[in-house]
Amino acid sequence: MPELPEVETVRRGLAPVFENAQIVNVVVNRPDLRFPFPDDFAQRLKGQYVNALSRRAKYLLADLSNSEALVMHLGMSGSFRINGAAQHVATAVHCPDKLPQHDHVIFELQQTDGTVAEVIYNDPRRFGFMDLVSRRRIYESKFFKGLGIEPLGNELNADYLQTLFAGKKTNLKAALLNQKNIAGLGNIYVCEALWRTGLNPMDPVNVICGEDPQAQNLRQDLCRHIREVLSEAIEAGGSSLKDHSQADGTLGYFQHRFAVYDREGQPCSKPGCDGEIMRQQQSGRSTFYCPICQKSRL
DNA sequence: ACATAGACCTGTTGGC
DNA sequence: TGCCAACAGGTCTATG
Length: 298
Hints:
By secondary structure, the protein is α+β, with helices and mostly antiparallel strands. It has 7 helices and 10 strands. Helix 1 (about 5-20) runs parallel beside helix 7 and helix 6 crosses helix 7 (about 215-235).
């Protein structure tokens, strides 16, 4: 589930139960996810208050009262759900003799009104991970050091792309996926942003570099479309592939608005374009694009 | 410096 | 129905 809009959706869903709550218990059901849990993970969390739940790129950050931060990444298949008492019963009735698969971490969070909420991290593929990092030095930590700019902030603009891409030959798809350039985009939203801009994913980044007006416009358009597609997706509660849901169980619906992603063979929806969406592998991952309105500029 | 392939995992889907 | 290959929202490493 997790590119920037999905992680932001998760953050918004979890913030009400995490923020200002006290972590009264943590259950860890295995020694590792993608990486081993840090030493004394549960003990270090127990008793802490959560001051804020924020996001950087595809990471969630819980600021703790002991000045550590809980860093969480969802990998490919990580998700959270919040268990109220009622839902607990419902689960028990539904599958009485079976524990839910892949529930790896359970946070018990005491709310300011005294009730306790359970937040459960589930991750079938275990590409996600959690760590504890000093809050003050978090941006020097291995996860955040070298991470590129936030695409929704002011730093993403035509000049930034010119500086970043000038003289490079990397293809546009790879450059936008590279978290060192812009942090938070993933396979879906890169494909969508390039389609909106009419850029060919296989073209080198220098097709949008230079001082001529057309290149400048393309850079501006790309920035604008990146921001737009991410904002619209956040607005829609993210994209729910498979049966993936938000923390409260509702589904995001941006997947219904994909123009190219997972639409191989379907007609291009750009007005006046009669192209058909193609799929092509780029460094091992599927790229979706319209060969007509995303023609190469070389 | 950069591109590509492979690795890490499990689950789902589509073809035969 | 069963089996098998291909594929999946991410990122890290090794190799050319």
